[in-house]
Design a protein that fits this description.
Two copies of one chain form a homodimer. Chain A contains 21 helices and six strands. Helices cover about 65% and strands about 5% of the residues of chain A. Chain A folds into three domains: about 110 residues, MgtE N-terminal fold (Alpha Horseshoe), CATH 1.25.60; about 120 residues, Roll (CBS-domain); about 170 residues, SLC41 divalent cation transporters, integral membrane domain (Tetracycline Repressor, domain 2, Orthogonal Bundle). The first copy, chain A, has a three-stranded mixed sheet. By secondary structure, chain A is mostly helical. The interface between A and B is large, with 120 and 119 residues.
């Protein structure tokens, strides 16, 4: 379609929402993207860039010169412009900033001065703030006089003379209240203030917990400096919640648009770590070589004990990692949670061990072998239940991200304990073929 | 603290937000919750229930009679009341409905008539809709005359005579526009309409994609019947995105407040399935018993080949499951994604196989063994890269949830192919100790 007939491509894209055009760029093969950009011309506007996947975006921005990127950035809200600039090389970003108007440049440079993934980078500086002693009528008149207000807003912030926030009004309250009521009587005094250096994950949890639509951002002195709205937070909630699964499996960013070499770097590092831990745990098997030589069936059964233990550990670990990420698992209930997981592990272990023990005893006509594998499985599932909670909790306590490295430790524990428990018991029981 | 001094407990809870009081109930051990409820008295209001974890909520609701639950449900928005009733036993829910006023009862029964997890259960029926031919002044006057409007609203819907939605106005537009402008000239005609039977996951993706604050819900005839606001969606986005990790590991609901027996049922079912697949793949090892008897070191090396392959498969699978859940992986780019993952797998495979091959050759002074394990690892990582995309995509194509069962198939494939590739090559190469 888009080889040749640019008019037709434009006509098709005409009725689409910027988010849909951004999707189109993501779905098209990489080598067709420049052609599609040329065909769409000014339909590829700033809003489309704001919606685009970061890898596809930086690919397209590489085709533009600093002046064009500056134009796009200036058409966007501060937070979206920052998102474009923070993904660029430092040198290129400087060129773009130099091509911008002084005010826009100052706003973006200020945002970039806050740490990455902090509230300061997410916030929008355009906001409506009114003094406490106004009436509803004054606020309404003030809003009608401000055609320069470009972004939509959902709440009005009430501040004192020092720009310290004292309350919030939702627009629906303003619209349903008689004009002579004072702002001070209408506003809600309890409000969730976001410090400018708060991590975006924490900001997202606040929005979710208190069902916020927008929230005031304050600087270190408590002065109102910006506003964060829920539509920017929705992406973060989605990303942060979905990220755990990628981190636990060592898949890094896990974006299907990421360049192959970047993906290779992240994943191979993880696989090499896993190679190391697999060698450690299988050295246990090597140590029991004389037992296996006497009874080779053990070589086939050993991985089963480790595998089921690994699965049980992963279940507990997934629950613990999610509970930590959503602030459900705290110091107050850690011991209770470990105790809970141990009870679940005991029930699971008894079930699986009984099945496996009876099955093995029957298939190999060897009740002793059945008893040994059942005992080893029960032991390993109990170990898995403990490790599945304790490893992520300890990592979290020492300020490591539990999603990133829990699975290495948990799997190494269940593999080693599975191999060791089974082969040690088999040796003690003097099993031979 | 809360043994005895109820006054003190109340005083401490006084300044807390309902969401914080709900958290308090979750953090307190199960046997103290009834006591805390008694201590807090009417501070444990409907809003607190709306914010509470579902297991803790149903535990507390069990202590109340139908009349008390009905009172709580009536104080809430339809969607929150529905959330309380849908978790109850059918009989208890009937008792509660019978204790409610006829209008509230009708509203909730209607919501319950829609499928679980559909837009119909999430929507709020209170909304503001105005005709197209009004002016801004008329809308403003109308809003001031409606003190009965209980919930906050963020957008006003414009409808024709048949209640079909024709446009939307954000409140900030209304507040900054001169009173004589017609609604028809102010409203946005392009709008995202949510069919009443749409699945909540799909609703959440729309909200996210188009950065919506609220959206009109329409019945099968296209008439406006309700509104969904983003604060209800935020929970769903968080849940749905976080759920994948729990499903992939077979941890079910994965809530640390779930009763132990329910958790046991979900997880043991999964462990038994895994026991089965582990037996299938280790039957491959049993088939090669003669080879292992001749060279027992193979018993220790086999699990390493399977383990690294399993990790590589999990990485690809995690990426594919996330990309499917966020609509990034579609029919248009499936082949491209498989090709991409194969290239990543080739690069990872070469790296890991080289390391392992050289290491094994040196440690065991056996270059042939090094070559065999390197070839088997490269092969298994390529298999893992393919299976990691193809399994979730096929499950999705046939309308199974890829997060639920992908890992069973992928792990079985990488285990089997790891065991088979290595032991078959070792046999062919005639390796002996």
């Amino acid at each position: 379609l888009d080889d040749g007939d640019n008019e037709a491509a434009r006509a098709l894209a005409e009725p689409l929402h910027p988010a849909d055009i951004a999707d189109l760029f993501e779905q098209v093969p990489a080598h067709d993207r420049a052609g599609l950009a040329a065909a769409l011309g000014d339909k590829l506007d700033a809003e489309v860039f704001a919606e685009m996947n970061e890898w596809v975006k930086s690919e397209l921005l590489d085709l533009l010169d600093a002046g064009q990127v500056a134009e796009i950035a200036q058409a966007l809200d501060t937070d979206d412009a920052v998102a474009i600039l923070e993904d660029m090389d430092a040198g290129d970003a400087q060129d773009v900033l130099r091509a911008m108007t002084p005010e826009d440049r100052a706003a973006i440079e200020e945002a970039l001065s806050y740490p990455e993934e902090s509230a300061g980078r997410l916030m929008q500086r355009d906001l409506v703030a009114v003094p406490e002693d106004w009436t509803v009528a004054q606020v309404t008149a003030f809003l009608h006089e401000r055609p320069d207000l470009q972004t939509d807003f959902w709440e009005i912030f009430v501040v004192d003379e020092g720009m310290l926030p004292v309350g919030t009004m939702r627009l629906s309250w303003l619209l349903t209240t008689p004009p002579d009521i004072a702002v001070a009587d209408l506003m809600q005094r309890d409000q969730t203030l976001i410090p400018v250096d708060m991590d975006q994950e924490e900001v997202a949890l606040r929005f979710q917990k208190y069902a916020l639509i927008s929230a005031a951002v304050v600087d270190l002195k408590g002065r109102l400096v910006g506003v964060i709205t829920v539509d920017d937070i929705v992406h973060i909630i989605q990303e942060e919640a979905g990220e755990d699964i990628l981190k636990l499996s060592g898949a890094g960013d896990g974006d299907i648009n990421e360049p192959v070499f970047d993906t290779y770097k992240t994943r191979s590092r993880w696989l090499i770590v896993n190679l190391g831990t697999a060698m450690v745990s299988s050295s246990v098997i090597a140590a029991f070589a004389p037992t296996i030589e006497k009874f080779v069936v053990l070589a086939a059964l050993t991985p089963i004990v480790a595998s089921v233990g690994g699965n049980a550990g992963t279940q507990t670990m997934a629950v613990a990692v999610r509970a930590l990420a959503t602030n459900q698992l705290t110091e107050a209930n850690t011991r209770r949670t470990i105790w809970r997981e141990l009870r679940v592990a005991a029930a699971n272990g008894l079930t699986v061990a009984t099945l496996m023990g009876i099955g093995t005893a029957l298939v190999f006509q060897n009740p002793m072998l059945g008893g040994v594998i059942a005992a080893a499985m029960l032991f390993n599932i109990l170990v898995a239940g403990m490790a599945g909670v304790i490893v992520p909790v300890l990592l979290d306590r020492f300020n490591f991200d539990p999603a990133v490295s829990s699975s290495v430790f948990v799997t190494m524990t269940t593999d080693t304990m599975g191999f060791l428990g089974f082969l040690w018991l088999a040796t003690r029981a003097g099993l031979t073929g």
